[in-house]
Amino acid sequence: MLDFDKTKPVSLNGTVLATFERGEGNALVFVHGSASDLRTWTDQLDFFPDRYRTIAYSRRYHAPNAPIASDAGDPIQTHVDDLVGLIRVMGAEQAHVVGHSWGGLVSLLAAKQAPELFRSLVLIEPPVISMHVNVPPKLVQLIGLLFSAPRLALAIVKFGASAAGPSEKAFRRGDDKLAVERFGRGVLGDRYFGALSGERYSQVWENRGPDRALALHQGFPDLIGTSFTDVRVPVLLIGRGESPRLFGLLIEDLEERLPDASIKVIGNASHLVHENASEALNAAIQEFLGNVG
C-alpha cells in the first residue's frame, strides 16, 4: 500500500488533511469510504497519473490525520465542506471525482452544493438509504416502503439486522473488535472479510473511530424529499458485484433521480471493488472519463 511518507499536508477548514498527488492534466480526485483512508486507492494511484492529475486524500479523522474524539459525532456536512474546500485550495476545479461508499455520498452532496467544481462523478455503492427512510428507520417508514418498494424495504431490514444493528450494539458496549467484525462481514460478506490481509485489517482498525461516531451519533443526513435533478454532471454508478442486495437497489433508484447517470456492474468483487477488482474498475472509470471528455 501507499506509504504515508509520500503524502503532503493541506490545511483547510480548521484541520490538516493528508493528500497524495501525482500526474498532470485534468484533476481526478478520489474520496474514500468508511474503515479506510487514502491507502485504499493504491491501485488507482498507480494507474491514473499517466492520464490525469490524480489526487487522493484521507478524510477528516482518518489516518494519518488527527483522530476523532471518542465521544464526538461526525456529521457528513463537515466532510462535504472539506471536499469542496480541498478542490478549491488545490486549484482542482472542474474535477472528475470518484467516491467510494460513504465517500460517494460525500461526493454526491458536494456536487449538489458546489456544482461549479465538478466535471463528473463516479460513485461506488453510495449508501443513500436516508433518501428513503431515517437511519435508524421508523416503523411507519418501513411499512410505507413495503408497499411502494418492497424489495428495498426488506433489504434495509436485513442489512440493519445483520450489520448495522449488531455493530452499533457492540460499539455501545465498548467492544470495537466485534463491532468492526459484524459490520465488515455484513458489508463485505464472510468470504471477503475473512480474506482481508493483516495490513488491510490494520487500516480498518486504525479508522474505526469515525465508524463508531456514525453508529452512535446517527450521522446519516436526512435526504427524504431531496431532489438531485440539479446534479447535472455525468455520473457513473458502480455496483453491485457480490455486495448485499441493498447497495444494488439503492443505486438503481439513484440512477432514476439523476439527470445523466448510468450503472456499471462489476462482478467477482465485494463492496471494496476498487481493491478486489481494480483492473476492471480502472478500465470502467477510464472509459467513462474518455466519454465525458
From TrEMBL:
This is Alpha/beta hydrolase. It comes from the Bacteria. Keywords: Hydrolase. Residues 28-284 form the AB hydrolase-1 domain. GO terms for molecular function: hydrolase activity. It comes from Limimaricola litoreus. Pfam families: Abhydrolase_6. One of its GO terms (cellular component) is membrane.
